[in-house]
Amino acid sequence: MSSNLEFPMSGGDGANSYSKNSRYQAEAINLVKEMIIEAIAKKFDITSLSFSSNTIRIADLGCSVGPNTFNAMKSIIEAIEWKYHSKNLTTEMPEFQLFFNDHASNDFNTLFTTLPPDRQYFLL
Question: Within a 13 Å sphere around the CA of 38, how many CA atoms are in the beta-carbon half?
Fold first, then answer.
């Protein structure tokens, strides 16, 4: 018997899936969105970064299956872009790479088939 307990979400997009039953998580993401934006505005020092690789990498360690993870990542990227534009930097906007990670048994097929078509990032 394994000492690690895993409770992966139901995959797919059926009636019992996480993507159809994660309203509370979506509300929690919306509640902290302003705090994330404020923290990035205050703490993320974009002028001290070296953009020699011109890439910002963001990891979601515990990603959901469905739109919640994409909405959270979109908020973070928009806050960084706002910070970047607010500094009137003349260098090119950095590229974003997102890493999605969770239990190996999570339904990553559904996650990747529901990617937003207008996303501003690459996935790894």
Answer: 5
